[in-house]
């Protein structure tokens, strides 16, 4: 279990960054919008207890059990990684400007071209639309590629995203999992 950050640790985490969990040739590179203060304080992706990323990852069949954020490095052994559209931590994603998201999208493209995952899964449709300039994009597989990398957009797993239930998130993660295993999608 993760230790709970103190208020001072949370305040100190503002505008910091956390390291990517990344390696060349991953099956799926998940990209969050940006790390929250809780994640920044612990230096772990999707670390806030109410975030549904880790349960959805397991429900979607990517992990053999529900991993804790402190186990994020184990994802590499499964061909998975985590990065963010924007690296800096904020209390809320709505603190990011459209310019920051667009610049983050450009940096994410460069990262994808360098590391060449088979799939990039952006976790957050609104951020994806802004960062990549596709204002009508929907959740699911996208038509565009980044080099040879296919792109999929997943719903934001934040507990603030009430539009998606835990079961619905798991189903959407499972759709990506099936596509990532389908040899026709290579």
Pick out its properties.
186 residues, alpha/beta, five-stranded mixed β-sheet, 15% strand, hydrolase activity, acting on glycosyl bonds, G/U mismatch-specific DNA glycosylase, MUG/TDG, hydrolase, Uracil-DNA_glycosylase-like_sf
Q: What's the mean pLDDT score?
A: 94
Classify the helix fraction into a percent range.
Answer: 25-40%
Total strand segments: 5
CATH homologous superfamily - what is it? Uracil-DNA glycosylase-like domain
Q: Explain this structure to me?
A:
Strands 2-1-3-5-4 form a five-stranded mixed beta sheet, sandwiched between helices. It starts with 6 loop residues before the first helix and ends in a 5-residue tail after the last helix. It has helices at 7-13, 37-42, 53-59, 98-115, 125-132, 166-181; strands at 28-32, 80-84, 119-123, 140-146, 149-154. Helices cover 33% and strands 15% of the residues. It is of the alpha/beta class. The radius of gyration is 15 Å and the shape is globular. A hairpin with a 2-residue loop joins strand 4 and strand 5. It has one domain (7-185): Uracil-DNA Glycosylase, subunit E (3-Layer(aba) Sandwich).
Q: Care to give the gist of this entry?
A:
Residues 19-177 form the Uracil-DNA glycosylase-like domain. By secondary structure, the chain is of the alpha/beta class.
């Amino acid at each position: 279990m993760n230790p709970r950050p103190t208020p001072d640790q949370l305040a100190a985490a503002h505008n910091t960054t956390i390291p990517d969990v990344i390696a060349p040739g991953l099956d799926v590179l998940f990209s969050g919008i940006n790390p929250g203060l809780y994640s920044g304080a612990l230096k772990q992706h999707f670390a806030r207890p109410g975030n549904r990323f880790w349960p959805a990852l397991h429900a979607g069949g990517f992990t053999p059990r529900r991993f804790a954020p402190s186990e994020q490095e184990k994802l590499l052994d499964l061909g998975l990684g985590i990065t963010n559209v924007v690296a800096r931590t904020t209390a809320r994603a709505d603190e990011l400007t459209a310019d920051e998201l667009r610049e983050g999208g450009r940096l994410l493209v460069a990262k994808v071209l360098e590391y060449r995952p088979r799939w990039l899964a952006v976790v957050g449709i609104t951020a994806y639309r802004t960062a990549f300039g596709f204002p009508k994009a929907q959740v699911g597989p996208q038509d565009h590629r980044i080099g040879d990398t296919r792109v999929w957009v997943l719903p934001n797993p934040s507990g603030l995203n009430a539009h998606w239930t835990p079961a619905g998130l798991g189903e959407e993660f499972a759709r990506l999992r099936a596509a990532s295993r389908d040899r026709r999608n290579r």
